[in-house]
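Problem: given the chain below (200 residues), write out its structure.
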Amino acid sequence: MVYQETFVQRNQHRIYVREYPGEEPAIILMHGFPDNLHLYDRLSPYLSPPRRVIAFDFLGWGASDKPHGYPYTAAGQAGDLDAVITQLRLQQVILVAHDASGPPAIDWALARPERVAGLVLLNTYYCAMQTLRPPEAIWLFSTPVVRNIARPVSQMFGHWIFRRMYQWQFGRYFRSIGFCAREETGRICRHILFSEILDK
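Solution.
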């Protein structure tokens, strides 16, 4: 699939962007936590062409800069989104937000409704909730200090600990909603997500 790679400047930091050719309004694909723009690798060929598609890594993720001491907040991510839209000179956009990119996408859309041709929300949230927390499996392998210990320990046992935790937290969810129709498909789905989390 043909795409152009570039970096968008956000103050002294750089945001990695992939741009697929097509017509306006552009579709902007935003990843959640813990993830990066590769979340949409299989989707992009179905969107471009005909549509122009922009995928980017928020600061701190993927190929974007990871500044130390930077406030990684929803407001900061809205600023990342605005920098991408502004520097690519996009007029109207279709925002696609997954997971933790929901709040910045919604905030940007509310502040500039005339620029938004569409807003697609995938498995996300908006306001603070008492019950909102990352699953233990994600917390364990994505919290900076904790993951430095958890990842080597998990590797010592062939990732058995993580696999058990993942099956406990996510395996039941896939079966209960029929996300994967057959058990074999379910194993494939779990393996793909397991590999992606460990590669972060």
